[in-house]
TrEMBL record:
Protein known as: Amino acid/amide ABC transporter membrane protein 2 (HAAT family) /amino acid/amide ABC transporter ATP-binding protein 1 (HAAT family)
Domain (ABC transporter): residue spans on this chain: 344-584
Subcellular location: Cell membrane
GO molecular function: ATP binding; ATP hydrolysis activity; branched-chain amino acid transmembrane transporter activity
Membrane topology qualifier: Multi-pass membrane protein
């Protein structure tokens, strides 16, 4: 059920005129044009999946053609070698889904395992269609080799019927894609595109999301290929090839990636016009298409549709977030009792890069309600230690416990499950999303978001609400974050971390770049987090005056070693600290 009236209106304006056009178009178009457009409609379904992956998730993929080709060959092989009938149609469709599922699982695991890079994932997507094409070439008479499969029996429907069936399917698919991408769950894709690192440190398993999404879009692309093969009666290795996959990317870029409608219209219009140009200008039409692609990328990087159809862009922007969001106090009752032991404990933590020891034998602990500051000159290893605590794979030696849990080699999203939250020195928020959307995504681990609706309520723990109200961000929930000031972004990131309901919070220079009044405000908030709400804070800070005002204890690092630990007065007034900051202390 679609609860948001704005989304309902958007979908109605999208679905009704489009369905009317699909029903009426065959009455006025000639047979050749209808035939070309049916093929283009199948290609538009494929382009839509590329837009979801590239335009909304930031994953540039050349491999969607492989899914399309797999679905096409599922139909071609079944109809050629087994026969045609209702049972065989269902079998071919089932095989198309299974093929997409297997290809998606394998490709997704190779592309998105922990530690892989976006470039590596794109290279895997580039290799996929090349490998699949070679498999088809090597299939001999079974796959038809380079000639493909032709002449098999297929559904005997009139062109007008095909057009209306495929057109209606495309309209429904586009509408549901729009609904999904505008939902609370769908906004996670935009968050991944904006900042994968922050998503991981909010407890979101990025790899799993991407693999699931690749499988889902792969199944859609495969079914589109199945439909294309059933309509055309011809399949060829080129349908699964790298060249075709690149063409789809061009369609998406020219139409306008990240707009849903742009790639759909781009695929239909470009494929339709290409069919005519290839007949009239057989040797140069691809040159014209390439020139157009380059010009659009340089002059209109968002694509043609956003530049031409300004009215659509305004409607699109108007439905990006609810008109009003109501803040609600979340139920933060802890299951099975709150952990009462050491909130964080480090034993012999070490980190090295080759022969360079960055951290050596770091051992200390902190309890709930403590604010422990890590100080030391630049290069002391403070930020490196933060990385080791929040990402198990970063540590070279030693043991780290968070609320009694040994993090071992756990990635950031699993460390969050132990009760850890991390704020970076440079505020990491989602620039294309609103304040409310950023905070809602931060609640993903605690409250499973809907993938079909958007909530107008935002549940936050009391300490996160305190940050919003103290910084007046509660009055800017519908503001896009890229318009916020530096101080507001710092406060928003802190509120996002607190929305996780952590028990241990790592803070890397949270006052960097802030004015004196903003620093004082952040200081009061941090003290409240420990004294009123019992959180354990581990703070990296250079300003000794700021540290003196808010800390429970201080740990001093120098050249990768823990050289002193004690009360605020013991540490700040010590000769050792004065010597370290004067730069005259030798190697510890």
């Amino acid at each position: 059920m679609i609860k948001d009236p704005a989304i309902r209106r958007q979908l109605m304006w999208l679905i009704l005129p489009a369905l009317l056009l699909v029903l009426v178009a065959p009455l006025v178009l000639d047979t050749y044009t209808i035939n070309i457009l049916i093929r283009a409609l199948f290609f538009a379904m494929l382009a839509l999946t590329v837009d979801v992956l590239w335009g909304y998730t930031g994953y540039l993929t050349f491999g969607q053609s492989a899914f399309f080709g797999a679905g096409a060959y599922a139909a071609g092989l079944v109809f050629t070698h087994l026969g045609f009938g209702p049972g065989y149609v269902l079998l071919a469709a089932f095989l198309a889904v299974v093929a997409a599922l297997l290809i998606g699982l394998i490709t997704g695991w190779l592309s998105f395992y922990h530690g892989s890079t976006p470039l590596y994932a794109s290279v895997i997507s580039l290799v996929l269609p090349i490998v699949l094409t070679q498999v088809l070439f090597s299939g001999g008479t079974f796959t038809g080799s380079s000639s493909g499969l032709t002449g098999y029996e297929a559904p005997d429907l009139e062109l007008e019927t095909w057009f209306r069936l495929v057109g209606s399917a495309l309209v429904v698919l586009t509408a549901f894609t729009c609904l999904f991408l505008r939902s609370d769950g769908g906004r996670i894709l935009s968050a991944i595109r904006d900042n994968e690192t922050r998503c991981s440190y909010l407890g979101i398993d990025i790899s799993r999301y991407k693999i699931y999404l690749l499988i889902a879009t792969g199944i859609i692309a495969s079914l589109a290929g199945f439909g294309y093969a059933s309509f055309s009666g011809v399949v060829a290795p080129e349908l699964a090839g790298f060249v075709f996959g690149t063409e789809v990317i061009i369609w998406v870029a020219l139409g306008g990636r990240g707009t849903i409608m742009g790639p759909v219209l781009g695929a239909v219009l470009i494929d339709w016009s290409s069919a005519y140009l290839s007949g009239n200008l057989p040797y140069v039409w691809k040159l014209f298409l390439g020139i157009a692609f380059v010009l659009v990328i340089v002059l209109l990087p968002k694509g043609l549709l956003p530049a031409i159809l300004k009215w659509f862009r305004k409607i699109n922007d108007a439905t990006q977030q609810p008109k009003t969001v109501r803040l609600v106090l979340a139920d933060t009752t802890q299951p099975a009792g709150l952990y009462t032991g050491l909130a964080i404990e480090l034993k012999g933590v070490a980190k090295s890069f080759g022969s360079l020891n960055v951290l050596s034998d770091i051992t200390f602990s902190a309890r709930a309600g403590e604010l422990v500051s890590l100080i030391g000159p630049n290069g002391a290893g403070k930020t490196t230690l933060m990385r080791c605590i929040s990402d198990g794979a970063e540590r070279g030696g030693g043991t780290i416990y968070i609320q009694g849990h040994d993090i071992k080699l756990a990635p950031p999203h699993q460390c969050v499950q132990f009760g850890l939250g991390r704020k970076f020195q440079t505020a990491t928020v989602f620039d294309s999303l609103t304040v409310a959307e950023c905070l809602r995504i931060a609640r993903t681990r605690i409250e499973t978001p809907s993938f079909s609706t958007r909530s107008t309520e935002l549940h936050l723990p009391s300490y996160a609400l305190e940050v919003l109200r103290a910084t007046e961000l509660d009055q800017k929930l519908d503001v896009v974050t890229n318009t916020l000031s530096h101080g507001e972004k710092q406060a928003l990131e802190l509120a996002m971390v607190l929305a996780l309901e952590p028990r241990v919070v790592l803070l890397d220079e949270p006052t960097a770049g802030l004015s004196q009044s903003e620093r004082s405000l952040i200081g009061r908030i941090l003290v409240d987090l420990t004294s009123r709400f019992g959180l354990c804070l581990l703070l990296v800070e250079h300003d000794l005056d700021f540290v003196r005002e808010i800390s429970s204890r201080i740990v001093v690092l120098h050249q990768g070693r823990l050289v002193m630990e004690g009360t605020v007065r013991e540490v700040v007034d010590s000769d050792l600290v004065k010597t370290i900051y004067s730069g005259s202390l030798g190697h510890a």
